[in-house]
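ok so I'm stuck.
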Amino acid sequence: MGAGVNNGAKICIVGGGNVGTVLAGYVASRGYRVNVLTDHPDSWGEVIDVTDPDGMHFLGTLDCVSSDPAEAIAGVEMVLICLPGPAIHDKLLAIKPWLRRDTLVGSVFSCTGFFIMAIDVLGSGARLFGLQRVPFISRLEKYGHSAHLLGYRDCIKVAFSGVADTDGVASLLSEMFTTPVSVLSHPLEVTLTNSNPILHPSRLYAMFKDCDTPLKEVPAFYSDWTDESSELLIACDREFQLAVERLGIAPGHIPPLLDYYESTDAPSLTRKIRSIAAFQGIPAPMKRVEGGYMPDYDNRYFTEDFPYGMMLIKMVCWRLGIATPTIDMIIRWFQERVGKRYIDGDTIADSDDARAVACLDVSSIDYLISSMVH
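replied:
not stuck anymore, here's the structure
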């Protein structure tokens, strides 16, 4: 795997959703040998057609599409995981026997605890990398056959663990994705984010905390954003930023949300969020019931952003001795609604529910914290 040079490197994409499909087609079109590990291999074609915003087509021919890790993983030089947080831990266990010692294992989105789960499963010596954001904005057109690359990033930020030649791997990723890559100094800089893990739960709490009877209509998640949602989000971000400061994360790597959204207070943040074009038309996660609509607690806004997002932030803050009263209030509301027990008061619960969340592995979190703080 030469730095920045396509030498026919063999890569396995794990997961066949929006991002996985775009990456498989795009990277294969650039001459890389691409395998896909998916639960639905029979639905895939040999060639993936990816279309970008300018109408360009990238046709990528895949080497292998399989549900068998022994077939899809063996012999590859890089594994790129494109899975939601709750699915990552078990998939790491499944692929572990087929990984070589020098195989690079990475995730396209790291804030659901990828590094924590990978260190737990593969060990602290594993060669790991994680992106702060997905490399492309992606949407499926026909499963296993075609997808849309809706937008490119100006820059991709990546962090590493157990990798000596970070600049070389960053150059390879830049060549694969045809996008500049910036190397961050520590895995926690991509593990911790004040995006979805606090943005979605804050809004959900404001919308549904008093929702005990069906609503007649489904509100817009962003277009109907309220000042109460903004106030909760700002309060959660203040607690989050205490951890950023305590860990010594460089200023600007994870900016406060008011700075990020160029706002000064709750009303200006509300106006900003309501005005973002990409957010228009996105409905609240609800399902139809008799008499109207109720929150859909099986939606990923709940199943991922609470246990694999906000709870991860809570765990890090708890290990650092940082109080999180607003985050705790929102988590308590969520666990009451879904019949789980993740926290007791302001501490992590000694419960099967908390232990079942793979990204909350205490030893791996403490390993990352100690390696950064010291």
